[in-house]
Amino acid sequence: MEQADIFVEALNLTMFGMGFVFLFLTLLVFVTKLMSAIIRKLQARAINKYDSTTTLEQEIDEETKFVIEQAIKLHRGA
Q1: What is the pLDDT of residue 16?
Q2: What is the predicted pLDDT for the residue at 50?
Q3: What is the pLDDT of residues 12-57, one digit of tens each?
Q4: Distance, CA of 17 to CA of 21 (rounded, Å)
Q5: Which of 36, 37, 39, 60 has the most CB atoms around its CB within 10 Å?
Q6: CA atoms within 13 A of residue 21's CA, in its CB half-sphere
Q7: Minimal CA–CA distance to 64: which of 55, 56, 75?
Q8: From CA 70, how far away is CA 65, in angstroms rounded?
Q9: Running DSSP on this structure, what letter comes out for residue 48?
Q10: What CA–CA distance (Å, rounded) separates 26 from 18?
């Protein structure tokens, strides 16, 4: 009789544990899909923010360009 109770408790604990893991992993999948959708929307919004005709040289002013060139020369040892 006592052995049957232990077996039922073990079975109950196993089913509860497996159910909890299943629910947690299902929730994790949906949260990951939601985050992915949010990132895609933000990325699309950021891409549309910049005009495709704008080049890098138009975005950088002369002083910044000079500083970058000097840093590259200093790094290369020239």
Answers
A1: 96
A2: 65
A3: 999 999 999 999 999 999 999 999 999 999 988 877 776 555 566 6
A4: 6
A5: 60
A6: 6
A7: 56
A8: 9
A9: H
A10: 12
